[in-house]
Structure formats: C-alpha cells, structure tokens
Amino acid sequence: MARAELEAFWRGLDLSDAEAARDALIEFVPTLVREYGDLATAVAADWYEEVRAAQVAGRFSATAAPGVEAAQVVGSTRFAAGRLFAGDPAEALSIISGAVQRYVSYSARETVRRNVASDPARPRYARVPKGATTCAFCLMLASRGFVYRSSKTAGEMDHYHDDCDCMPVVEFDRAQHHIEGYDPDALYADYQEARKVAGSGDPRAILAALRQEQGIR
Fold first, then answer.
1. pTM of the predicted protein model
2. pLDDT digits (tens, 9 = 90+) for 65-81
3. Is residue 68 within 8 Å of 103, Cβ to Cβ?
4. Entry's InterPro entries (predicted)?
C-alpha cells in the first residue's frame, strides 16, 4: 500500500525539474513512512497479543515500537533523488521504493523484537520468509528456526535488505505452533548441503553454494 501511494505521488511529479521533484519527495516520503509505519506497529502489536493468548496463559499488553527517525528517511530520499540529476528517474524510484518498504517493515519487525525481549513468558522467534522466492542470506537465517530471544542472540537475524519480505514470527509453545509453508528443518537441510558443497564453514562460501544449488540470488 505504501509503495502504491508512493508510485501515485511519483506520477504527479515534474521529473524535468529535478530539484523541485527532490524537494517534494523529501517532504512527502517521511510522512508516508510515518503513517504506514504507525499502522504496521499497531498491527504487529495486535498480532503479538493474539498469538500469545492462543499459546500461553496470562495477559500481556504489547507495546508498539517507535518508527525510523525522520532524518534517516530524509537522508535515504535525498540520496536516491540524486539519480534524478543523473537522468535516471527509474533508479531513483526503485531506491526510494525499496527504502520505504524496509522502513515500514522495520516498524513491525521492531515491535515484535521488543515485545519478545520484554515478555516474561520468554518466547522465541524465527525469521520466516513470506514471498515466492527467498535469497540465500535469508534462507540461511530462516533455517535456524525458533532460536532467537533478543538482538544479542539474533545477531544477523535483525539485518534486512531492501525488498526483503521476511518477518520475525514468535513462538511460545512449540507443540501448539505451526506455520504453513515454513519448514526450518527442510531449510536447514538445504543449508547443510550447501555447507558440504562449500567444504567450509565460511558463511560467504556457504552463501555462494546456496545460490548455486538453489538458483537464487
């Protein structure tokens, strides 16, 4: 939805005036990210409470995490809009669109992460791919299953690239929890096969083998 609104706004810009288009984007994009980010945090907090109530006794009020700082959004937008001055508006839109998706998704992801860290029930969470295809980096992290409790233990798990559709999914009771389409054991088998092919524990070599074996980026 945020991307669709961005594209509609983009169609109304006079791209022949790069400076005016840049300034309009710098004013518009942070507001877009804030509005959809607020919606994402509210949805994530409600979802967290629903999942928790279905798996564990006791009440817990999930809190919404703050969104990305406006200055960060402005910086990303200004950088991307630089492509307008180079005569490459398609690249400018692609970069801004990717950043909008990442920043809005951050709000939901951070809400889940913070509530996992503060919840006395001590749940775990996994990185769960949502799209039709998953890159090698995300596949590797998703293969670990429900092992994360905090940013300290998550490490790379909290790193997301533009256009990444992975989401952190919380688990309180393994016996009651099943996510259709997510099979960490199968993903881990793919990871182990790639590690064997790589002949190394070096993550870069394993990722290269995953890309080759799975035909993914």
1. 0.82
2. 999 999 999 999 999 99
3. yes
4. VG15
